[in-house]
Each structure stands twice: as C-alpha cells, then as structure tokens.
Design brief:
Layout (H helix, E strand, L loop, with lengths): L4 H8 L5 H12 L4 H8 L8 E2 H4 L5 E9 L9 E7 L1 H9 L3 E4 H7 L6 E4 L1
Parallel strand pairs: 1-2, 2-3, 2-5, 3-4
Helix pairs in contact: 1-2, 1-3, 2-3, 2-6
C-alpha cells in the first residue's frame, strides 16, 4: 500500500539519518518514485535486505529499498540501485560487471523510473 505524500513527509521528519531523509524527500517529489519513499519511511525492520543470490532472478534495473548483502554469487550485467551496500557485495558486483548506484543518484537521473523493478 502506497502512503500519501503528506504522510510520507510527516514520517520522514522522525528519521535521524540525514542521507535517508534526503532520499525520502527526493523520492517523494517525483510521482514515479512515491512508492520507494513510502517503503523507506516505514520501520527499519520492514526494509528488505537482499543477498546477491536473490538478485539473479531479475534483469534490467533493480531497486532495493534496503541493503544489498554479499551472500551468493553476483549476477551478470545488472544495474543494482540500493539504499546501501555491504563492502563485499559492492566488490562482487563490480567484479561481475554490474552497475552499482545509490538510490538518491538514480532518482535524480531516472525521473520517469523507466524499466525499474522494486524489490519489496
């Protein structure tokens, strides 16, 4: 369920991580990224942390509203966008030839959210 923009804005004020707040407000401004903002304003325990092995079933651009962990092998030729990455996961992804980006960078560059798959 997607939250309203005002509820997202109100919940963002409770967050203490300035990078997270900036990402939420940036996503909330763009109608295509409101779903991501809604997921990020929820409790931390409900954010999805994903192992590399789970990313193998996707193609194109994959958005993780949480952390990418290093469990498993890195998929080939995938664009992974996440709130954060573990060091080992980032190394494995770059070694496999994947493109790695922070969530805020992708929201700014891909305003229309074209070919984006959100892992919930």
């Amino acid at each position: 369920m997607i939250k309203s923009k005002t509820k997202v804005k109100k919940q963002a004020t409770r967050k203490t991580n300035p990078f997270l707040v900036e990402t939420i407000l940036l996503a909330n401004k763009n109608p295509k990224w409101v779903e991501v903002a809604s997921l990020l304003t929820g409790p931390r325990r409900k954010r999805k942390d994903v192992n590399l092995s789970e990313l193998q079933k996707y193609s194109g651009t994959v958005v993780v509203c949480g952390k990418v962990l290093s469990g498993g092998d890195a998929p080939k030729k995938l664009k992974v966008v996440a709130l954060s990455f573990s060091e080992k996961a980032k190394e494995k992804l770059l070694k496999a030839g994947c493109e790695v980006k922070k969530l805020s960078e992708e929201i700014e560059k891909n305003k229309d959210a074209k070919e984006v798959k959100i892992i919930k």
